[in-house]
Amino acid sequence: MPESITVDKLRIDDSAHPDKYNGPAIFANFNPDMKDAAYQEKFPYVITKQVILKNVTTASGKTLRVSDNLFEFKNVNVEVKN
Fold first, then answer.
1. Which of 10, 19, 21, 56 is most open to solvent, judged by the fewest CB atoms within 10 Å of its CB?
2. Distance between CA atoms of 50 and 76, rounded to whole angstroms?
3. What is the pLDDT, as a whole number, of residue 75?
4. CA 3/CA 51 separation, integer angstroms
5. C-beta separation of 14 from 60 below 8 A
6. What is the pTM of this model?
7. Separation between Cα atoms, residue 64 and residue 52, nearest integer Å
8. What is the mean pLDDT of residues 3-7?
9. Residue numbers of the domain that contains 13
């Protein structure tokens, strides 16, 4: 993945979300088996280091989450600029 990602002027229409919706995620759960440092990937990903969000809004009003897999993306710095 790229070292840095900038998302500028994005509107996410998540108005028709299910009841247990936690908000949109920046990254999918690429590897649900990666739950702790003991897991060793056969082909490791290079994880993005920084995500910059500029003027990103959602119809639901929920904020963007990093991922369902918080361990895998624990070192990603997310900076919000509006």
1. 19
2. 5
3. 95
4. 9
5. yes
6. 0.84
7. 12
8. 96
9. 1-29+42-82
Alpha-carbon gap, residue 28 to 6, rounded angstroms: 17
The amino acid at 61: G
Residue found under tokens 């056969």 = 42
35 within domain boundaries: no
Residue 82 has pLDDT above 80, yes or no: no
Cβ–Cβ < 8 Å for 59, 23? no
In a domain, 76, yes or no: yes
In a domain, 19, yes or no: yes
* Residues in Cβ contact with 62 at an 8 Å cutoff, skipping those fewer than 6 apart: 14, 21, 22, 23, 24
pLDDT higher than threshold 80 for residue 2: yes
pLDDT in tens, 32-61: 999 999 998 888 788 999 999 999 999 999
Q: Residue 60 domain-assigned?
A: yes
Q: How many separate domains does the chain show?
A: 1
Q: Which residues have CB under 8 Å from 40's CB, separation 6+?
A: none
